[in-house]
Amino acid sequence: MRTRRAAWIDTGGDAKPVRCVLWDLSEGGARLAPAQASKLPGVFTLILDKTTAHRCSVVWRKGPLVGVRFLLSAEDEQAATAKPAAAEPSRELSPELQRSLAAHGSGEAALAAGPSVSFFAAGFVLVLIGLTALFYFAGQQSELGSAWALDLCHEADSLCRHPEFPGGASVLMALVYFAARGMEL
Known about the structure:
7 helices, alpha+beta, single chain, 47% helix, Thrombin, subunit H, six-stranded antiparallel β-barrel
């Protein structure tokens, strides 16, 4: 069953749970996108919500995605830790499934092709820095009687007198950029 929601991975010990995206869920397993898929241990606990958790073993890893099987008993867990996780076998999609994915605009290719959150955050940072510079310069030029600066400062008086407003916003947006960038790595 396709789903896209937050879940957490508990690797045990003193480590904090790692946030991940739950892409698919079935009775026997799930497809996840954890922050650092390659560093994920072979066996861990997947926390779906406050009342639901599953002990899991990694079945395959493919880029940022991980396929897991839900472990039903202690014997399953011992068997899972004894053998390394194999890569997902490559397979061809049926033409019917390819048409369905293309029609609905879903699938991993469509997701990977889109711009990242940090891309938009970086764009906002640049826009805010530009606005800070513009209003600072306009405030300086309006004191000298420049027509364009007087017009701009007439329309946005508080921003010309206080260019630190967009400057402060650009600092906050830079923090958002670095946080988003860290989550994508």
